[in-house]
Amino acid sequence: MSVNADLQKPNIKNNPKIMKAWALYDWANSVYSLVITSTIFPIYYSIITTAYKKKVFIESSGEWKEVPVPNMINIMGDSYEPTAIFSFSLTLSFLIVVIISPILSSLADTIGNKKSFLQFFCYLGSTSCMGLAMFTGMQNVFLGLLFSITASVGFWGSLVFYNSFLPDIATRDKQDALSAKGYVYGYIGSVILLIICLLLIQVVAKTPEETKIYTRITFLITGAWWFGFSQYTFRYLPQFGLIKDKLPKDLVLLNYKNIFEKHEEHGGFFEVLKDNLAFYVDVAKESFRELFKVGTELFKDRNLKFFLFSFFFYSIGMQTIFLMATLFGTSEIFTKEEDQYKLIITILVIQIVAIFGALAFSRLSRTIGNKNVISIAVAIWIICCLSAFFLNKENPKVEMQFYVLAAFIGLVMGGLQAMSRSTYSKLLPEDSMDNTTYFSFYDVLEKMAIILGSLIFGIVIQKFHNMHYAFIGMSFFFAIGLILIRFLKLKSHKA
Fold first, then answer.
1. Predicted pLDDT at 251
2. Beta bridge partners of 67
3. What's the rounded Cα separation, in Å, for the pair 423 and 365?
4. Predicted TM-score (pTM) of this structure
5. Structural domains of the chain in order of their starting residue, each with its CATH number
6. What CA–CA distance (Å, rounded) separates 41 from 60?
7. Helix/strand/coil for 93
8. Which DSSP state fits 12?
9. What is the CA radius of gyration of the chain?
10. How far apart are CA 277 and CA 270, in angstroms?
11. Exposure class string for 155-180: b at 16+ Cβ within 10 A, else e
12. pLDDT tens digits, residue range 318-343?
């Protein structure tokens, strides 16, 4: 086994071409998260699921304001808020990722082809993103939700394998900068594409119907961007993983070309298929045992224990707000359809600010350490949550208040994401062959946080028909994360 391991682990650390190829996957896939998930699709979804607008007189401003009335979605005889259904669909996508990622990461470590799994999820996500163009109205709303689920699975599933390459290709002293570089590439790419999409929707489109058509075109463009630019990453990123000796006679299910072979030398097709199925069942069982074992091992380390607990709690707040912020903006701040472009511009500004935030936090970590940088970021998130709670759509200055809030969110969003990934990477055992499994645990923990957060968000909306209350809950989780991160005891700023 050690021979195989040595064969699978060439000297690829700190190779400029490989590190660039890795970072550019952020450029390719971040457009889905930042352009579609957090910007255009929620706005489009809100427009499609709005039944009509009613006018309400605002006494404080002395003017009439249009308020959207949602077209309720019926499921098994019960009516649900569209926003709640959207939140629940995201919860389902993350639940799928939580279930399958340990199995797939175990397969990747066993077979040594985690780049192939990265490719699979990339293609699933990018084609599903293009499939969103088929979502045209309430008559096929479930088709739109289905593609949003599979696109989300593709995006988050690919990140399990993408993130696990970080300790493989960079030494610890390079990981903070490389992680931040990836996020910077992602934000820059997203800004460029978002500007293109904004021009199509706001300039090229002349009527509300054309706006919807060009919005669907942006789904196609984003999916093609993700698919196309990822090819550079796949060209230069090496296969990396631990190949074990006991593999099936022939890998049928993971190599579609072998499905059409007779496999006479191995006893025939069905004998090989039986051998494959037994192998995959064993891998599935072993994957969850390994995940539990890895979790137990990680939590034995004091620093990893407090970091992972902290990461779990502040991820509940960060990821939930990241996913639901646009729907908050459309329902509470920019309620007029003609004002939707203001929200897109706001998110564009957030992403530009996030570029500088990721770079600033990366450089700041060299001076005060990752622990203090994460603490500052989480503290700012708490302030943002409390500020969001007090936003009043009847206040004539609410738009300006929202812009200021967005700027602070942009500042800490990229920085906290980059620092979390690199801090975890540096706390892991050095030169380990189980990085995919380690990052699978990291990913599962993050997805469990998102599942809990989006579920809470959806329940609050369904019960109170008001998003403001959810922000109080999110600030509570951030506070727990802040307390726990302070228990880290690091010998130097490099930790």
1. 64
2. 54
3. 10
4. 0.70
5. 2-485 (1.20.1250.20)
6. 32
7. helix
8. -
9. 23
10. 10
11. bbbbbbbbbbbbbbbbeeebbbbbbb
12. 877 776 666 667 666 766 666 666 77
